[in-house]
Amino acid sequence: MRLANFRKAIVQNGYDAAVLTNTVSQRYISGFNFTDGYVVVGRERATILADFRYIEAAKAAAGDDFDVVMISREQKNILPDTLSSYGAKKVAYEDNYLTCSGFAALSDKLADFELIPMGNLLDDIREIKDAPAFESITRAQRIAESAFRHVLGLINPDMTEIELAAELEYFMRRAGSEEPAFPTIAISGASTSLPHGEPANRKLSRGFITMDYGATVDGYRSDMTRTVVLGRADDDMRRLYQTVLDAQLAALEVVCEGADMGAVDGLARDIIENAGYHGCFGHGLGHGVGMYIHESPSLNPSAKGKILRRGQLVTIEPGIYIEGKYGCRIEDMVALTDNGPVNLTDCEKQLIEL
Questions:
Q1: Quick one: which of 42, 41, 73, 38 has its CA closest to 54?
Q2: What stretches in the chain show pLDDT beneath 70?
Q3: Nearest 5°: phi and psi at 131?
Q4: Whole-angstrom distance, CA of residue 146 vs CA of residue 186
Q5: How high does pLDDT run on average in the chain?
Q6: What is the CATH number of domain 2-126?
Q7: Handedness of CA 105, 106, 110, 111 (dihedral sign)
Q8: Can you tell me the distance from the alpha carbon of 146 to that of 172, in angstroms, rounded to the nearest whole number?
Q9: pLDDT in tens, 286-314
Q10: Hey, which CATH number is domain 131-343, 3.40.50.720, 3.10.580.10, 3.30.390.10, 3.90.230.10?
Q11: Residue 18 CA neighbour count, 13 Å, CB half
């Protein structure tokens, strides 16, 4: 289905073929994960070009939709020869992902073809998730949730932030994650006022601990944030936490196919502002997640008038950050499926004190 959708877009845009050089794009279209070669898609044929290190695995993964051809020193012209065998003249390339030197090298190889930048063509296709994508993201999320419950029994004042981040990542890897979805955020105390603070080699501070992390399954990422308290929360901390939770729950109630992205963001933002935390929620309410941790769409104030569509997936992650003091964020992922919005996150989020 993915190959068919991409091929349809190739035809509609007047291309004869497309050369995929980005590893994420290659895996999305072919199902094969490799780092050195090309995936070439024409109007009727598709080919994986890989070197000796990957060729056996490529043949096993490709299925009937792809020819698999080995790149060798004797076949320096394998890419242009493949395109010529397609009868291609107009060839789309991934301008969003090529460096200047990469484009120069590709242009040199394909000097006899008309190279056309494809822009967001494949990104827009990938933005609308199919059932296998939702299944992989859900599996990744279940791994992340298990990691959260695991570390709740380990967190103590003698543990460092780096140790907490490492424990999350180690547990997820043992549970089947290919890699962390992104660099794990595990921060405590005053560092929680930094939305993307980095774990340090310091012992966990009493007060808020924010964990923002995810797992990876089949190349698809999950993304969740939970904030807990080491020790006991005072009244101000409880009020702040409840305000974030109220904002998130309100947004979760209205996020759906056809909803205005800016309005969903505004609903959560107004709850935080009206509670007296003016200027303390500085980032957007959410973003898409897929084979990249940040994809379209984006829920933020500038998205007013943009409408959510079936097949998209968005995070809902309001936060309050008081500079120099502390902060709190709670994040779930919502899939806009054929059966309506589905919260893929199944993890406790009432205030936890450890």
A1: 38
A2: 74
A3: -60, -45
A4: 16
A5: 96
A6: 3.40.350.10
A7: negative
A8: 8
A9: 999 999 999 999 999 999 999 999 999 99
A10: 3.90.230.10
A11: 27
